[in-house]
Amino acid sequence: MQLSKTLIAIVDDEPHVREALDDLLQAAAYQVRSFSSGEEFLASGALMEADCLISDIQMHRVSGWDLLKIAQESRPGLPVLLITGRGNETAELLQPRGHRFFFEKPVDGRTLLKALREVLPPR
Q: Cis omega before residue 106 (within 30°)?
């Protein structure tokens, strides 16, 4: 009997970031689905399938903030990790919201994998 892999959804409008995260997570034995926009992610139905969401904050139309809010409303226990190219300003916004998992670009792979081990049940 084969155990199903943990599914991580990645949403980022920068192709090189998506590819790097996809490669990192697949190498760590996660199943990955990548999306170039919040709209694409929401239309796919992956929100209901994912075990974790990793999203860029600054995207057009549907931002990472929007995805965080939608995830909190529809899947309250879903871990959401946010990434950004604007670290200091983002930290100030996240602190009052009680959201502690955000990463600055370029994302350090070891730090991200450690955070995933912290927010996901053991495999």
A: yes
